[in-house]
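## retry 2 of 3
previous attempt timed out at serialization; input unchanged, resubmitting
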Amino acid sequence: MLASMLSLPEKNWFQRLIIGTILFNAVVLGLLTDNDLSPDFRSVLVMLDHLCLLIFVFELSLKLIGQRFRFFGDGWNVFDFVVVAVALAPPSGALSVLRTLRVFRLMRLVTVVPSMRRVINGMLGAIPGTAAVGGVLLVIFYVSAIMATNFFGQAEPQYFGHLGVSFFTLFQFLTMEGWPDVARPVMEKVPNAWMFFIPFMALTTFTTLNLLFGIIVGAMEKAKADEAREDLAAQGIEATEESDALRIAVIEQNVQKISQSVSALKEQLQKLE
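## retry succeeded, writing output
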């Protein structure tokens, strides 16, 4: 009996229940932000919020008992534990401020949905690459801000009066939000200003940012491949580092599952006959 209960977090229907509870809790927390709610309806929502929290505590308790110290070896489990623990803070006293962080319970959706978890893992794996690109982008911004201040500071001090303002204006160019409203007045006073603006936007907006996105996408693909490799290793299938070999192993695994399903279906048909 105890063993079957401890295995609940691994079952698909239980995971779907947790996902549904998280989504339902999101609706409840959203409704609780309305100050025009009647006291009776608000009390019902608070009760439902406590019910959702009780389900989360039950799930984490099963994981803690089943995995014991291995539970804290998984970063996602630690995240779930902290988020739920914060929600258990008393509504009054020194820890009452932590109650406002209960909305982070909705972030648990990332931990229970594999595709979302894969995105976060990919973003975390892309940090070294993005840091390098960010460093290059910062250098380009700094050099460009100095040049823009020297070139256009007297013509348009509102946008390029000093280094800080130039930084902000160039960041506006990077986001491409209202940049013509800045560039055209400058070009009326400095006709050759386009020779600065166009290369800057081409270098930052269209080149550096695309490189940044490419690094993130590559890291997400690597995270997906690593996850597939771990699944294969758990099933005793050795996966090599080459992507082609990994794809072949995945295909063979799927074919094996299909063959088993067909065999089981044939047996059922024979029993019916």
